Amino acid sequence: MAIGHRLSLHPGAGGAFGERGSGAVLIPPIERIAQTGSTNADLLARLAGGEHVGEGHWLVADRQTAGRGRLGRAWGDGSGNFMGSTVVRLTASDPSPATLALVVAVALAKVVKIFAPSVPLELKWPNDLLVDGAKCSGILLERSGDSVVVGIGVNLASAPELPDRRTFCFADSGVAIDRDRFAEALAVALVDALWTWRQEGVESIVRAWLPLGHPVGTPLRVSEQDIDGTFDGLAPDGALRLRRADGEVMLIHAGDIELRRPVEKGE
């Protein structure tokens, strides 16, 4: 991937990466460490201790011994995988922080597609990246005051075994992705996605998410509420539209979504 070129979020976008009329965004600072418990926990501790962690600063670990996923799930590590966290500083004029899940998902999916163009990727709402229904990444957002710590794990070289779902790693498909180059590309892509989120609004992020996501009509279940339906797109605010069997459309703003069966695009 050429870092100097903008990663378009939707058709019609263009220009140099981060170019807004004057200059271009440089690669944000990436702090690399050999091992830690959790990069998210480390940044949260720094913030709680009063340390200033600038937006866009990344902490990337070679190994992570206490990685966490959504709902407290453990997330295993592996040498060569991407495991990193960064900070988003919220302002009063920003869109809803809840929609950051979509922002991060779009940035991650676009970067992965550049490094692994032959791998059939698909986003599951709001921010799971899947390959043929198998999970290949994890995203965890945790708030601390006026900041959100964004943690991302991507199975570049190996995949953890999870009790409740299949997993995938890119190396098993013969795709070798250098962790450090991936980290640089992701850091720049998130800067660009955050600019779009702030300047163009959530609806622009929604338009970027939809072509990357599961197709309209995909059977889904909202696990916590045990509600079934089919995917009916996203609302302008990023909520999932779930169409029930009787035709009613429910808006899901948060929840653990299960794909009920694989559906190919165009089916």
Key phrases:
single chain; 267 residues; alpha+beta; 5-stranded mixed beta sheet; 5-stranded antiparallel beta sheet; 4 helices; 13 strands; globular; disordered C terminus
Task: Tell me the strand percentage band.
Answer: 25-35%
How many separate helices? Answer: 4
Number of strands: 13
Supply the helix-strand structural class. alpha+beta
Spatial strand order of the main sheet: 1-2-3-8-7
Would you kindly provide a written description of the structure presented here, covering whatever features stand out?
The chain is of the alpha+beta class. Helices cover 21% and strands 27% of the residues. The chain has a five-stranded mixed sheet with strand order 1-2-3-8-7, sandwiched between helices. Strand 5 (128-131) and strand 6 form a beta hairpin. Helix 2 packs across helix 3 (179-200). Mean pLDDT is 86; it is low at 1-8, 10-23 and 262-267.
SSE topology sketch:
Elements: E1 30-36, H1 39-48, E2 58-64, E3 82-89, H2 100-115, E4 121-124, E5 128-131, E6 134-135, E7 137-144, E8 147-154, H3 179-200, H4 202-209, E9 219-222, E10 227-234, E11 240-243, E12 249-252, E13 257-259
Parallel strand pairs: 1-2
Antiparallel strand pairs: 2-3, 3-8, 4-5, 5-6, 7-8, 9-10, 9-13, 10-11, 11-12
Helix pairs in contact: 2-3, 2-4, 3-4
Task: Give a brief outline of the structure.
The chain is of the alpha+beta class and 267 residues long. It has helices at 39-48, 100-115, 179-200, 202-209, and strands at 30-36, 58-64, 82-89, 121-124, 128-131, 134-135, 137-144, 147-154, 219-222, 227-234, 240-243, 249-252, 257-259.
